[in-house]
Specification:
By secondary structure, this protein is α/β, with parallel strands linked by helices. The protein contains eleven helices and 17 strands. It has helices at about 45-50, 100, 150-155, 160-170, 190-200, 210-220, 230-235, 250-255, 280-285, 295-310, 325-330; strands at about 5-10, 20-25, 30-40, 65-75, 85-90, 90-95, 115, 135-140, 145, 180, 200-205, 220-225, 240-245, 260-265, 290, 315-320, 340-345. It starts with a strand and ends with a strand. Belongs to the zinc-containing alcohol dehydrogenase family.
Length: about 350
Amino acid sequence: MTTNVPAYAAPAPKAPLERTTVPRRAVGEHDVLIEIRYAGICHSDIHQARDGWGQGIYPMVPGHEIAGVVTGVGPSVTRFRVGDRVGVGCFVDSCRECAYCRQGLEQYCVRGMTGTYNALDKNGEPTYGGYSTHIVVDENYTVRIPDALPLDEAAPLLCAGITLYSPLARWQAGPGKKVAIVGLGGLGHMGVKIAHAMGAEVTVLSQTLRKEADGRKLGADHFHATSDPATFERLAGTFDLIVSTVSAPLDFGAYLGLLKTDGALVNVGAPEEPVSLNLFSLINGRRTLAGSMIGGIAETQKMLDFCAEHGLGAEVEVISADRINEAYERVLASDVRYRFVIDTATI
């Protein structure tokens, strides 16, 4: 039987979020019922709630950084029990049959993954995200949160953590590698922590030096201001890997010039507008311009285990649900150190 649960939703594009209720399906054969304890606020929540990327489904309940506790299981569930600490990230289903799904790369599902929110499930019903008290998710798209990670600090790892872990692992950040993280925000601060724990030499490239003390505390070896043109001259040809977390267009030629031969600039931030590129920035130096999107279920679990082993929770500011709209404005103003997390008990 469908159950209505309290939630915060955007009723229309660019409208403030407001308290409401949304339906949750009955717990099916392979489903787990999760009491959400914390939900992170990702910049992509703002993009989607305000229809910045288009194709918004309203009312929209954002939230794909979900940490909670299992309170019910379907009769055939084998991976989880009532009381387990679990997380849900950016998607809750995929085709399960294509080559990518079979490889554990569900985020690149040929038929398209089913987003945790702002998507239609296999029955054509809209999905609603983590700004709510409960969610029902297939056990195969649920991950276990290790006991060593506090739930509020773990919630942002389900997007911010895996979004940075995946390219850092794919491009082999580690000892002997020089890695730069562009932007020290909700994504970037986890990139610094993870790259440092992997053993890389880590540089932060930020607009100003305002956050330098934070960056070094998080594990950065170096910190440079991109607003200073001398930075691009001084660091030319320095890095094996640059991961850009910013959601504004960059001067890609300038950033590609910071790479060594065979270096890669990987984008995980997604500007709303198109960007331009002079291809000689790639041709000179056999450089790579790439993108990366979250990670599969197995890799997300691996990331959580890695973070637990190294004590890498997100830096969070826990807020009550009635401050969501204020938090959105503060995210846009870069006024958060470094991730807002909603205490869903306040919904």
